[in-house]
Amino acid sequence: MRQRDGDNCWLCGNKMRFGGIPNIGKVATVEHLQPLSKGGTWAMENLALCHLGCNRHMRDFDRAHKEMMRASRCRPK
């Protein structure tokens, strides 16, 4: 996923940490764009890398809602 998506969070677009202390808000996590609880799978096209804090913020919203959340943020270029 990192090779495909790079080092920036899927939701906010800021750099993630790939080493160091786990459970810090900027550490990289795997996000299910369509949650498992709503029929999502572990298929690569359903997975994205994002900050732990962003992952928690997206909770178990469906993919369409997460896409709206992503579009409404000021994402770095």
UniProtKB/TrEMBL annotation:
Domain of life: Bacteria
Membrane-spanning residues: none
Stored InterPro entries: HNH, HNH_nuc
GO molecular function, one term: endonuclease activity
Keyword Plastid: no
Keywords associated with the record: Endonuclease, Hydrolase, Nuclease
Domain HNH: 9-57
Database matches in Pfam families: HNH
Protein name: HNH endonuclease
Annotated organism of origin: Sphingorhabdus buctiana
Lineage summary: Bacteria, Pseudomonadati, Pseudomonadota, Alphaproteobacteria, Sphingomonadales
